[in-house]
Write a structure and sequence with these properties.
The structure holds 2 protein chains of 2 kinds.
Chain A (H helix, E strand, L loop, with lengths): L14 H5 L1 H20 L26 E2 L14 H5 L5 E7 L7 E9 L8 H5 L5 E2 L16 E2 L1 H6 L14
Antiparallel strand pairs in A: 1-4, 2-3, 3-5
Chain B lengths: L2 H36 L18 H12 L13 H19 L5 E6 L2 E5 L7 H9 L2 H11 L3 H32 L4 H8 L2 E2 L3 E2 L2 H4 L1 H14 L11 H4 L9 H25 L11 H6 L1 H26 L12 H28 L3 H31 L7 H31 L1
Antiparallel strand pairs in B: 1-2, 3-4
The chains are: A alpha+beta, B mainly alpha.
The structure holds iron/sulfur cluster (SF4) (2 copies).
Chain lengths: 174, 430
């Protein structure tokens, strides 16, 4: 046998292991310890008292709510190519294209909405976009509303979301 | 039937119903908070009514309201037997509830020479009632699983049914050992037996007289209540939600509450048979009645100490961290509850002092009964707590492990124990 092979001992064969009750006792000791320490001083429990305390450790890779990016001259970066809508496995991106007047490109979206109630936050839309026009780097991790309509993000709302980690403009096209 | 007996019967019944039903929200809350604290988080603690959170119990009541007004949904494939589909959770729930109703909360109250049992259903064959009714609960599970017309549900129901069958045998045999030892099928007589001592100094509790049968009883009752580590009727990893996959809103809540009532019932049976029921160790009812003033003085010290400890605990824990600015009325709540507790302590002390100084047979008896009810409730809650902590300690057993434990270990052990018990009892008596 090579010395790289480690044989881990099998447990559960001894009488004590088979009896199981000592194991239950050991387990209970652990749970009781946690329970009583925390009960004694519940403010020392290391949790976040959301929503009063907000998380401070959202990483740049966090997949938050979507946004539509701008070009360096603040026009919309999206060219309404429908790639994201095609890639979306939840079929929750709705785009209506229109002709672009500003001479930058041929098309732009007239309407662009994402139904976040159906969205599974897979990030495929971000992957599919050829113009870096849609991103999920807003750092927004909670979306609340009182009606179903509140969860359908329209173009204006998507454009108004700011990137949370510095990079504000689309870097693909100008 | 005298006036007193009717009043006592009604009070006992109402008390039993309250103990069974009111403990549901409390147990749900207890479970969630305990789970939280065991796992180093907090559990529900926000919901309040005018700032009163009571540590989060209000959350359970809010949940009840939510479940009541939730949309009732029936799977469209359930055409026949819809009423049975609806009835199934009710069967489970009421079986657990009815089984609880034969547990004595206090010793027999003697008023004017008339013995009044402090049992919601005053019967003398409590153990048989429990065995007969307790196992009916699984019929609700089987109906639910079968009528859901769903493979997961059916599997869950079958697993529950076969497990109950396997554990009913060791349970029954363990209980028979207890019946032989206590020489009675009456829960109350069992508790009276346990207020004795044996070996000079040990309290004659079932756990000490019949350790093996006690362990078997506890394990079998864990299985009967369908709680961890024996939750084979459900199982997210293999059969989705088990027999309750198709249940929603209040129908689901019935199963859910049924589990807690069953747990409460199992705790009550265990403490009654094994942990001395409503008795304090070494203290029989007769002794309590005769030396009531000493107990009154002791209580007069214990109650304020407890209240003092409680208030200190609240002031330490019922506040938010400095980093959180809003207090949401916690300081106010602590103050009001503290005042309430102090007032209660004063009232209790005054009543006890009065009773101790001017003995009155009837009043003493009622006070003793109340004391025993209190002991019962404390023990019941302590054992429920044990149930809960076990749930957050042990993982779910695999299904074949459950069956192996039942048939290969518990059944022979309980038979062996019955054999030994019979020999010892016959030997002692002859
Ligand atoms: S994250 Fe996934 S599901 Fe959501 S919109 Fe993008 S592609 Fe669709
Ligand atoms: S967001 Fe990107 S992928 Fe989607 S339509 Fe616009 S340019 Fe195309």
């Amino acid at each position: 046998m090579s010395k790289n092979i480690i044989t881990t001992p099998r447990y559960g064969k001894s009488f004590k292991d088979k009896l199981y009750l000592p194991a239950i006792y050991e387990g209970c000791k652990v749970t009781f310890k946690h329970f009583f320490t925390n009960l004694n001083d519940s403010n020392a429990v290391d949790t976040l008292e959301y929503p009063e305390e907000q998380p401070r450790d959202i990483t740049e890779r966090y997949r938050g709510l979507h946004r539509l990016t701008h070009r360096s001259d603040d026009t919309i970066a999206c060219v309404a190519c429908f790639m994201c809508a095609t890639a979306c496995p939840a079929d929750c991106i709705f785009i209506e294209a229109t002709e672009r007047e500003d001479g930058k490109d041929e098309k732009m979206p007239k309407k662009f909405s994402i139904d976040t109630l159906e969205c599974i936050f897979c990030g495929y839309c971000v992957e599919a976009c050829p113009c870096d026009a849609i991103r999920m780097d807003t750092g927004i991790f909670s979306l609340t509303g009182v009606k179903r309509e509140d969860f359908v993000l329209d173009k204006e709302r998507l454009l108004s979301h700011k990137g949370a980690f510095g990079e504000e403009k689309s870097c693909a096209r100008n | 039937m005298s006036m007193a007996s009717i009043i006592v019967a009604i009070i006992a019944f109402v008390l039993g119903a309250l103990l069974a039903l009111l403990t549901i929200p409390v147990l749900v809350w207890l479970e969630r908070r305990t789970a939280g604290l065991v796992q180093d988080r907090l559990g529900p603690n926000r919901t309040n009514i005018f700032g009163f959170r009571l540590g989060g119990v209000i959350q359970s009541f809010a949940d009840v309201v939510k479940l009541l007004i939730k949309e009732e949904y029936y799977p469209s494939h359930i055409k026949m037997g819809k009423w049975l589909f609806m009835l199934a959770p009710i069967i489970t729930f009421s079986a657990a509830l009815l089984a609880f109703m034969v547990i004595p909360f206090a010793d027999t109250l003697v008023i004017d020479g008339e013995a009044l049992r402090m049992q919601p259903i005053p019967v003398e064959f409590g153990v048989f009632w429990y065995l007969a009714i307790g196992a009916v609960g699984v019929i609700g599970v089987i109906f639910g699983g079968w009528l859901s017309h769903n493979k997961y549900s059916l599997l869950g129901a079958m697993r529950a049914a076969s497990m109950v069958v396997s554990y009913e045998l060791p349970l029954g045999l363990a209980i028979i050992s207890f019946i032989i030892t206590y020489n009675s099928v009456d829960f109350n007589a069992m508790v009276e037996f346990q207020s004795d001592t044996f070996f000079i100094f040990l309290p004659a509790w079932g756990i000490l007289i019949q350790p093996l049968a006690s362990v078997i009883l506890i394990v079998a009752l864990f299985a009967e209540t369908n709680r961890n580590p024996f939750t084979v009727a459900e199982g997210e990893s293999e059969i989705v939600a088990g027999f309750m996959t198709e249940y929603s809103a209040m129908k689901f809540a019935m199963y859910f509450m049924g589990e807690y009532v069953a747990m409460n019932t199992a705790s009550a049976v265990i403490i009654t048979m094994v942990f001395g029921g409503y008795q304090l160790p070494y203290v029989s009812t007769q002794m309590l009645l005769e030396n009531f003033n000493y107990f009154a003085y002791t209580l007069m010290i214990v109650v304020p100490v407890f209240v003092w400890w409680m208030i200190r605990f609240m002031r330490r824990n019922n506040r938010v961290r400095p980093s959180v600015s809003t207090d949401s009325g916690r300081a106010y709540e602590t103050k009001v509850i503290s005042i309430f507790l102090v007032a209660m302590a004063v009232i209790v002390d005054v009543i006890l002092l009065y009773l101790a100084l001017s003995p009155n047979a009837l009043a003493t008896q009622i006070a003793v009964t109340l004391l025993q009810i209190m002991v019962f409730v404390i023990k019941l809650m302590a054992f429920n707590m044990f149930f809960i902590l076990i749930r957050w300690t042990l993982p779910r057993f695999r299904y074949d492990q459950v069956q192996t434990l039942g048939w290969y270990y518990l059944l022979p052990l309980s038979l062996f124990n019955l054999f030994i018990t019979a020999i010892v009892v016959v030997g002692v008596n002859s």
